[in-house]
Amino acid sequence: xKIIKNSRFAVASLFSINGAVFGIWASRIPAISSSHxxxxxxxxxxxxxxxxxxxxxxxxxxxxxxNYGASVIxxxxxxxxxxxxxxxxxxxxxxxxAVALIFFGVIHGGMDVxxxxxxxxxxxxxxRPLMSSFHAMWSLGAGxxxxxxxxxxxxNVGVLMxxxxxxxxxxxxxxxxxxIPYQPEQKPQHQNKPIYILxxxxxxxVTVIAFCASLSEGAVADWSAIFLVSVSSVGDGxxxxxxxxxxxxxxxxxxxxxxxxxxFGPSKTARYSGLVAMIGALILAIFETFMPILxxxxxxxxxxxxxxxxxxxxxxxxxxxxxxxxxASVATLGYGGMLIGPLLVGFVAEATSIKTSFLIFPxxxxxxxxxxxxxxxxxx
Length: 380
Prior knowledge:
Blueprint: H1 2-27, H2 29-35, H3 40-68, H4 70-90, H5 94-126, H6 131-154, H7 159-178, H8 201-232, H9 236-239, H10 241-264, H11 266-286, H12 290-304, H13 307-316, H14 323-351, H15 354-357, H16 360-371
Helix pairs in contact: 1-4, 1-5, 1-6, 1-7, 3-4, 3-5, 3-14, 4-5, 4-7, 5-14, 6-10, 6-13, 8-10, 8-12, 8-13, 8-14, 8-16, 10-11, 10-12, 11-12, 11-16, 13-14
């Protein structure tokens, strides 16, 4: 029982560390861009390279998790994840920064797959839903990391000092976590199988559900402030509250998500979640005043918060694919949604209006609602 509790603590801690590293990096993007004198196009290229590195790593880390154990791969990746910020901070040129960000994407994205696979193992061992709380810890870590960036930037602490101190603290914490014992599950794949295996049957539907949720999340992150400024004519300060409300509601729902799933089951939870997200999306479509729109963003956050955790749990228990490969396939489409979402909203907004472009959200929520039955593990 002690090993089970320790394993749960280890996974939760590594989720928070992974989130903290991302939050720290994201909070200092403006400073890094300024120090390297990057144009918007150059910054866009660097962000794309980081995302491409992550997508490339998903399937490789998924296979490695199957062959050597998810906990083993997660622990090793977490050590690299702890020091990657230093490589970014010390990069003296655009090209070396590009290399550092590709490596950041590979390690951060690969760890995302392996730690979700490990989380699924711990969830099965505990015989109760846990995935939502693990993702809540990622959100909490990201918030703390971003908060540290805001605080230190306010006091004019440079990126080099910030990233170096953060890496030392994170590395010490990580070393204490990876020492926790855990017997890994190993499910070797056949060597002649391709690195990336396309999901089939119900798992394909699960990846579509994950795609809808992640596309919504990515679009809200990039466009919520612009939506509020354009539709409600608010200032930049109030405009930032849209994503703040969205993120806060996601965190609250993920903290409560495991108990909700335990009571109602994955399918019913996803169905009601899709309905809540749909109501929030329709509020955005109907109203143009600040407070209703803020409530709409909050409801979308509540609605999609547990969808990705449920998708990973369902993938990890799939009967047609190994755990690592299944999670990798969901992650690939998931991140693809985050990349495509902001672009799709931008193109539609350019052709019509920002208000019209946000009509994509009720459509995505409706798809989650009608496809929710495929998230049931009992139906496997």
